[in-house]
Amino acid sequence: MKSRRRPYAEQRPQDLGGGVWSVPVPIPGNPLGYTLVYAIESPKGPVLVDAGWNHPDAWDALSGGLAALGIDVSTVSGVVVTHFHPDHAGLAGQVKEASGGWIAMHEDDAALVRLMHDYAAEEHESFQSDMLRRAGADPGEVRQAVSRPTPPALPDRRLRDGDLVDLPGRKLRAVHTPGHTPGHICLHLEDADRLFTGDHVLPDITPHVGIYPYDRDDVDPLGDFLDSLDRVAELGPLDALPAHEWIFPDVAARAVEIRHHHDEKLVRLRALLAQRPEPLTIWEVAAMMTWNRPWDDLSPVLRGMAAGEAAAHLRALEARGEVRRVPGVDPVRFQALDS
């Protein structure tokens, strides 16, 4: 059941057995290459897990890939979205238009999608600019880093942890795994010992875990993510069907690996802060951390994402009592506490 990541051009729709199929859907201009959309057989018509990026090429790949497997997109009974990001939820609205099916999403991500629809473009730009400034970005970077993604379609159904998806004859249960987004869910196909992991557990890379606004002190997304990894590990050595890269066995072992990676990253970050006598901004901390490319080579948008991840790590350390934010300063600054 294991397959390795190949370029999108080499990907093909696959029958995975047991009434489950996969369709690779391209993400134009993104190094991830594609999203693996899954279809699960149902007497009411197949249910999709995720839908892919909202782009004509992606729609052709999704509808054509389903057709190659003998599935007409008009027969889809619903789309359950692992999280609201555009490479997962982007085409859900078009699938709904073509089939009349439902869209389901965890209630926490559904609330964010509603907020995105209600937020005017100028309000979003002002919010993002102020967030970047408070993190310590210089004015030039602030102007270049502001972006506003197109919100996905609003869901018809809201899921909570433990809910069963409308999939007659099967048991597909939502497992709330916050971190990558507040409402991220994995989906446990209990009658087949399979787990659709979305972006929560991937075979080679780790998902982005950020905090927005960067200086929030009332949430701990990285702490939530680590707790969610522990929860997935407790499910045992299920076969993992992720949204990117490749299908792999023993999701529990991979969840433990990812947890260890972040625990080590937190230790290194605290050590870096302890070496600096002066408090640092979030932007300065992000520039000190290790990314898949040097900081100077990151675009302003990618620097903004890196700052979000740095902020999540700082917040996790703050929640553990290992760093503190300096009160009353703007931009916000952090420093290590004595061991």
Order of helices and strands: EEEEHEHHEHHHEEEEHEHEHHEE
The CATH class name reads Alpha Beta
Distance between the termini: 47 Å
Q: Please state roughly what percent of the residues sit in beta strands, choosing from under 5%, 5-15%, 15-25%, 25-35%, 35-45% or over 45%.
A: 15-25%
Report on the biggest sheet: 7 strands, mixed
CATH superfamily: Ribonuclease Z/Hydroxyacylglutathione hydrolase-like
Number of strands: 14
Q: What is the CA-based Rg, rounded?
A: 20 Å
CATH topology: Metallo-beta-lactamase, Chain A
Please tell me about this protein's structure.
There is one protein chain. The chain is built from 10 helices and 14 strands. The protein has a single domain, classed as 4-Layer Sandwich (Metallo-beta-lactamase, Chain A), CATH 3.60.15. Helix 7 packs antiparallel against helix 8 (251-274), helix 8 (251-274) packs across helix 10 (300-319) and helix 9 packs across helix 10 (300-319). The strands form 3 sheets. A 7-stranded mixed beta sheet has the order 1-2-3-4-5-6-7. The protein has a 4-stranded mixed beta sheet with strand order 8-9-10-11, with no helix packed on it. The longest helix is centred in the last third of the chain and has 24 residues, at 251-274. With 339 residues, it is an alpha/beta fold. Residues 34-244 form the Metallo-beta-lactamase domain. InterPro entries: Metallo-B-lactamas, RibonucZ/Hydroxyglut_hydro, Sec-metab_biosynth-thioest, WH-like_DNA-bd_sf. Keywords: Hydrolase. This is Glyoxylase-like metal-dependent hydrolase (Beta-lactamase superfamily II).
